[in-house]
Design a protein that fits this description.
Blueprint (H helix, E strand, L loop, with lengths): L5 H15 L4 H20 L3 H9 L1
Length: 57
């Protein structure tokens, strides 16, 4: 995953726990998941603004 091995991911996890604390990590993961899900949905279904811009050209 992005050229990261197990040791690098472990260091990142430890740093995240030190910075945010173990109670805040699940909340951050949930928020990130919702954001990515919304982004993917927007990429699949173009908005009305995009359709209007394409029609004008």
């Amino acid at each position: 995953m992005f050229g990261l091995g197990l040791p690098e991911m472990g260091v990142i996890a430890i740093v995240a726990i030190l910075i945010f604390g173990p109670k805040k990590i699940p909340e951050l993961g949930t928020a990130l998941g919702k954001t990515l899900r919304g982004f993917k949905e927007e990429m699949k279904t173009p908005s009305e603004e995009t359709n209007q811009e394409q029609e004008e050209q």
